[in-house]
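We examine the record.
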Amino acid sequence: MILYLFILLLTFLYISVKRHYNQWERQGLPAAESIIPFGSLKALFRKERSMGLAVTDIYERFSEKVVGIMLAFKPALLIRDAELARQMLTKDFDSFHDRGVYVDENRDPLSANLFSLKGHSWRNMRAKLSPSFSSGKLKAMFETVDDVANKMIDYVLRQFEGEGQKVTLSIKEVTTNYAIDIIASVMFGLDINSFTNPSNEFRQISDRLFKTNQTHILHRIRNVMNFMCPSIAKFLALFGTLDPITADLREIVKRTIEYREKHGVVRKDLLQLLLQIRNAGEISEDDNTNSWHIENVAENQKSMSIDTITANLMLFYIAGSETTSSTIAYTLYELSMYPEILQRVQTEVLECLAKHNLTPRDNLSYDLLQDLPYLDLCIMETTRKYPGLPIWNRECTKDYYLSDNNFVIKKGTSIIIPIMGVGRDAKYFPQPMDYKPERYAEEKDKNNMVAFMSFGDGPRFCIAKRMGVINVKAALVKILANFNIETQPRKEVEFKFHSTPVLMPKDDLQITISKRC
């Protein structure tokens, strides 16, 4: 009798699980094949493809606008239609205003960053942080960006010592050091130089996060569950599964804040602006030098905790460091394979410097970087082909009717927008693997600009987009002004598996350069 009950229980469990995994087919939607317990992401769990590439593979296997998928055991909908995706991000934002990832503001404040916050909490945080990225604030912080760019050029010039007239660089390594120093200086307010001290604590954190991927199995599970199943992540958080990378960054932030508040230190960086929110509740809208000062207040009157500051700086660190370094590296790599494009953008840079009465080694200005339209097109093309995040995610916050499918997306359903899949789809961008900056200008009518969503769209678009583009342009201008890039045969970049969604090249991105006379 016990054996029969056991078999009956197993049968019931099997049928229930099977029913859960084929729910999209039962509801009449096309669906990607699901394997228990991996769902539609078998390649991810086998460490064959990263999350973004696994989703892109599914995108390419279907033609329908909406496809049902399973993120392990979590049901989700893959939105393959660019117009529908943009409508969800903009016009119908009220039905998709949350990302559906783990966040617990009260018990786990380090999870409460701008990316993960929901509803009114997100709106309040967005309103507080938006003034940090105004033109005036970015212009004030640009001197630091330019200083890091000069250090990068000095490093590259040193590589020519004893090496002759040409040098081959692993450009991704160079741009990673640049991005790390930018984040450390502009966001955390720390003076480091990864070009002369590659073992500094910030570079070590970056290597642990993006290169060596050395994190404990429990932390990796927690990081996956933050996206796949927030309820499990919330349960794991009860056991204090704080990963060492976040712990290290929190200590850096705490140490820096305490030093500044004790000694009255003022720097024109993002941390200083967050301290204004912490002490005054808002960021000064004035852009003069005095507006960066803060009045220290009692601890019980502070409106933003160190954990909340750390949470948002951690977000900007993760989102900014890898995307900045990759965008610069991929742009230079593509330019090395397209000599006509390279000549056009390099000519624009040199003419712009002459127009502003500057030499290649002079300090740049924020205004100069606004005067490079073709370089802007190159950056757009790079982010189309190599988006910083290959997928965007949303959660349906109220029932949403799809007229084409006569289907209702239920509240709580996860939505995946495959940015890389759409950006490399010939339906939207003809010859998608070709590097063609002109597609956003001269050939605009042949391309569907609705499909360009590399920075997101709608109220939750990338808040630091302008800062990221400025950081990328400063590095590209310095390199193109000071060096010639040798042409090399065309070879598409292959990507390796990584536990984070970002695109990690399998091989070094190498370019050969020579000094300009």
Summary: The longest strand covers residues 66-71.
